[in-house]
Design goal:
Its EC number is 2.3.1.30. The chain is of the alpha/beta class. 45% of the residues lie in helices and 10% in strands. The protein contains ten helices and 14 strands. Bound molecules: coenzyme A.
């Protein structure tokens, strides 16, 4: 699909390009629809169970899920109710988000793969309904997917406004131009920063506090490119236009400024002395 390619046009440029493995997210349009519909049925089943367990959540569950006709209507309702304010009302956001999902079906397909990823990878996530209603990492990422669509359609100020609302609401700063693949899990999410030219491949997992940022020294294409199934631990920083190949693990609190070959695990920070009053003397002794 042409639009799907343009949404993730850098995918072929990530370090995963050499991989000829079967792509678990590659499906025909009919299969994608079926995938989304199956997930939607699972979400509704979970919602019915939840309301019987905890009647106090009835209002939330009926308004956000059981009274909604489709996955896309429900998702746009959930997201819009989070970021609405007095200037742009929930109904206006919902209409816009629903329009984006109608015109770009890959958005809801990606959302569905993200929910499945959370259930598969997060031991604390009992079912899709839980992720759909309660995971701010999921909410922030789906809002970014809509803002990415706006960005691609020349509505950059509105996309940036959504970015700032996501930042205020969920504490995660995801630039609208950043490219996220399918099946991405952002766990806990607080303090995540993803820069403008970052690319996050299919099946990646990012924990809270992750920075995919620039070094502050360059302009243009300046942010990290993650291949497929990369795990970036909590508070890790990957800085600059570095390529992290498929299946790498970047440990919690690591700082990475160089390319990494496939399947590598990286931990720690180097803490090198680069310059300063005693820089050269210290460097000779370290
Ligand atoms: C990097 C990581 C994937 C390594 O896992 P692993 O390959 O199974 O490595 P091990 O646990 O066997 O540890 C191997 C060595 O690396 C060290 N190590 C592991 N993670 C480290 C980290 N983040 N920073 C520094 N050292 C680390 C261990 O102490 C051990 O050192 P030793 O051999 O001297 O004893 C994992 O430790 C990690 O950081 N995961 C991120 C998870 C996360 O962010 N969780 C947040 C949940 S809220």
């Amino acid at each position: 699909m042409e639009r799907e390619d343009s949404l993730y046009r850098n995918r072929e440029e990530t370090p995963s390009s050499s991989s000829r493995q079967k792509d678990e997210y590659e499906r025909t349009d009919e299969e994608k629809r079926e995938f989304v519909d199956t997930l939607w049925n699972d979400i509704k089943d979970g919602a019915r169970e939840l309301v019987s367990q905890e009647p106090l959540l009835g209002g939330l569950i009926y308004s956000k899920i059981l009274n909604q006709p489709t996955f896309e209507k429900s998702l746009s309702y959930v997201l819009s109710s989070k970021i609405a304010n007095a200037q742009v009302l929930a109904g206006q956001w919902q209409e816009l988000m629903f329009e984006a999902m109608q015109k770009e079906p890959v958005i809801s397909y990606c959302a569905a793969t993200d929910i499945r990823a959370c259930v598969e990878r997060d031991p604390a996530c009992p079912n899709p309904t839980h992720c759909f209603l309660f995971y701010k990492g999921f909410h922030g990422l789906q809002t970014q997917r809509v803002s990415h669509w706006l960005w691609g359609h020349g509505r950059k100020p509105l996309a940036c406004y959504m970015q700032s609302l996501v930042s205020e609401t969920f504490g995660m700063d995801l630039h609208p131009a950043a490219m996220f693949g399918r099946g991405v899990m952002i766990d806990h999410a607080t303090s995540i920063v993803v820069g403008e030219t970052a690319v996050i491949g299919d099946g990646c997992t990012l924990f809270h506090g992750v920075t995919l940022g620039g070094t502050g020294k360059t302009r243009g294409d300046r942010h990290p490119k993650l291949g497929k199934r990369v795990v970036v631990g909590s508070n890790a920083s990957i800085l600059g236009n570095v390529k992290v190949a498929d299946d790498c693990k970047i440990g919690s609190s690591a700082v990475l400024v160089h390319d990494v070959p496939p399947g590598t695990t990286i931990v720690g920070t180097k803490g090198k002395v680069l310059s300063g009053k005693y820089g050269s003397a210290l460097r000779s002794r370290l």
